[in-house]
Amino acid sequence: MNAVLNELWPYLVLLLVGFLPNEFWRVLGLVLVRGLNEDSEIVIWSRAVATAILAGVIAKLILHSTGALAAIPLPVRVAAAFCGFLGYLLVRRSVFAGVAVGEGVLLAGGLIFAH
Amino acid sequence: MPVPSTFNSSAEAFFAGLKSAVTSVFVLVLTGTYIGIGALTHDFGLPSWWLALSTMLVWAAPAQVILISALGAGAALFEIALAVTLSAIRLFPMVVALLPLLRKKGTRLRDLLLPTHFTSVSMWVESLRILPALSHEWRTPFCNGLSVGYMGTAVTFGFVGYYLAAGLPPLLAGTLLFLTPLSFLISTARNAHMLVDRVALVLGLVLGPVLTTMHVDLDLMWTGVVGGTLAYVAHRLRGAAT
Known about the structure:
The complex is a heterodimer. Chain A is mainly alpha-helical. Chain A has helices at residues 2-32, 41-63, 74-90, 95-113. In chain A, helix 3 (74-90) runs antiparallel to helix 4 (95-113). Helices cover 79% and strands 0% of the residues of chain B. Chain B contains twelve helices and no strands.
């Protein structure tokens, strides 16, 4: 019995503290969205809130990095993000080009300046 | 890449979505992100099938990173659930913004269940870009195909990362981790056609790190509510002025 519980425990934890607290917000959106259309004011506001949260996460991942990315100095990470964005603007508004430029700068900076 | 705006069947729309997914930049992003998450899962001694299941059920890379690293660090379950749910708040406005594109008079609730569960950053950004050009009847199958393409990629490369785990040199691991913020930054900017979206992007980029540095509780929630609302106010004021 204990062996079975040990095997199943990670899956139970996944459902309880991974799936449910995450899925809650999707289902809440589904329940509350009834009666709204795509250009109603609340939808525009919701999109602005979601965009701001995502932008906050993006900035935090770049500025307050963890793990292997933290070994690359902060100025290199910020410069790579700026260069990537410039690459996107200059090369036909291509996301591929922006990502390639940003990663190139990060890799070069990492090779030169890594701790 | 341009997507045809009409199809002969739901299956054709589904496969067009699938094709659109595997040829978009997000496939590279998901590949990099899930190779990283696979390596993390391996490090914390969780089974590879656990990761596959978590990708299908949670389907949100930030929540999965929090879940895996907190479980590995032995955090209290309540604490993990709170962190996961805070990271997931952004899914709520995404669903609210996405579903009106899929729904019209007479749409059954059960037809919206899959797109609701599939809602995630990559699928949301691409859906908001592509769906408005499609006629209503093809939007849901297209959106499901798109999502299955992304989720299949994520599950596959989670396994790849899991089994590559031992071999990644730190600098390469760092560049893989950088794929997520870099590509999301650029694709969100590309998607921000309206003033309100651009202002929200810039405010979020500034407020997120500022609130974190000030150790404000629930900093992501405030970043969204304050940044999003200020952007919306700017949008209303501009509308009133013209």
